[in-house]
Amino acid sequence: MKTLAEKVAYNETQNTGFSHGYCTGVKFYQNYGKGGAPVDKKGHNEYIDDMKKAAKKHSYAKGFMCGIRDAANERKAKKR
User: Fold this and answer.
1) At a CB cut-off of 8 Å and minimum separation 6, what does 69 contact?
2) Can you tell me the distance from the alpha carbon of 25 to that of 19, in angstroms, rounded to the nearest whole number?
3) Are 22 and 11 in contact (CB under 8 A)?
4) pLDDT digit string (tens) for 19-49?
5) pLDDT confidence band for 1 (50 / 70 / 90)
6) Could you give the residue ranges of the DSSP H alpha helices within 1-80?
7) What gap in Å lies between CA 20 and CA 1, rounded to an integer?
8) What is the mean pLDDT of the chain?
9) How far apart are CA 12 and CA 22, in angstroms?
10) Helix 4-13, helix 17-30: angle, nearest 10
């Protein structure tokens, strides 16, 4: 099983909509709540909901959702 870092490194070398979406999704998940500014939870959740709907038709959105899923699974695995 590949680590998240290996998956991101692989997708950074690809030039597809899915790979760009994947890297963006991982960064989006990992940077949530960082930077000191207050978090707009409603806007954040609306953006993810829009991506969920678009994932059925667009590879970028599908990659974005897969990146979020993998980043979340890695965070959960570290807590165990």
Assistant:
1) none
2) 10
3) yes
4) 999 999 999 999 887 777 788 889 889 999 9
5) confident
6) 4-13, 17-30, 41-54, 59-79
7) 21
8) 92
9) 9
10) 140
Phi, psi of 28 (to 5 degrees): -60, -45
* Amino acid (1-letter code) at residue 15: N
Q: How many residues does the chain have?
A: 80
Torsion from C-alpha of 76, 7, 45, 50, nearest 10 degrees: -150
Claim: this prediction has a pTM higher than 0.85: yes
Q: How far is 66 from 68, CA to CA, in rounded Å?
A: 5
Tokens read off for 72: 């979340």
Contact (CB, 8 A) for 28 and 63: no
Q: Which amino acid is at 49?
A: D
